[in-house]
Amino acid sequence: DVFAVSGMIVLSLKYFKTDLYQLRTQSNMETAKLCLLIDDDHDDQLVFALAVKELHKNVRCIIVDNALLGLMKLENEPDFVPDCIFIDLNLPGISGYDCLMRIKQIRRLAHIPVIIYTTSYRDEDVIKTYDLGGAAFITKPYRLNDLASKLDPFF
Question: Where are the beta strands (DSSP E) in 25-139?
Fold first, then answer.
């Protein structure tokens, strides 16, 4: 099932079929890796979900449309500790950089890898990501299998 709560989409990708509406919940979710994707582009959200599905791993993704929703979830739910967080740089309202900085200030999340996931190829963006404590910088590729291979080390 897909659960939409306050602009969030909760996905279980173990049994992902062809689109977001055909997801089924994995029965043993405690062994699933948990990932948070913060990206306002619904097409990019779908491509991300399909790439994770290509990995054939037990991954549960929570997808939010903006940094404010992601930060609210991370700051207000002490039991919510994802295994990794992916953030688009170009978000409405709070930028991806500002979101990264705020996540790194949350003590219980400081060790979580935060990956910038963006269309940018700019060297300045890569450098700034690492300067702010980002774990990696992924430029959104055009091919699904390229994205899957870039995501694989995080799951």
Answer: 33-38, 59-64, 84-87, 114-118, 136-139
Cβ–Cβ < 8 Å for 55, 148: yes
Question: Could you count the other beta carbons within 10 Å of the beta carbon of residue 83?
Answer: 15
pLDDT digits (tens, 9 = 90+) for 110-131: 999 999 999 998 999 999 999 9
Contact between 100 and 116 (Cβ < 8 Å): yes
In angstroms, the CA 99 to CA 1 distance is 28
Rounded distance between C-alpha atoms, residue 93 and residue 29, angstroms = 32
Cβ neighbours for 29, distance < 8 A, ≥ 6 positions apart: 12, 60
Question: What pTM, to 2 d.p., does this model score?
Answer: 0.81
